[in-house]
Specification:
The chain is α+β, with helices and mostly antiparallel strands. It contains two helices and four strands. The protein is 15% helix and 20% strand. A hairpin with a 6-residue loop joins strand 1 and strand 2 (35-38). It holds the Pfam family HVO_2753_ZBP.
Length: 59
């Protein structure tokens, strides 16, 4: 298995697109600390997101 195969696929938590190689944001959930990824478009539009681990809703 190559390092590329082992790499976790990262997708925007709001719209689901693959964010590899994009201007995306990565931050920890304010409630549970899970890693969250958002694409630039969803951030700019202030689309809501939901933490996949705890259900926290954010702008």
């Amino acid at each position: 298995m190559s390092s590329t195969d082992r790499r976790e696929t990262r997708s925007c938590v709001s719209c689901g697109i693959n964010i590899a190689g994009t201007n995306a944001a990565s931050f920890k959930c304010p409630d549970c600390g899970a890693q969250i990824y958002r694409c630039a478009k969803c951030r700019k539009q202030s689309n809501l997101y939901e933490c996949p681990d705890c259900g926290f809703l954010g702008p």
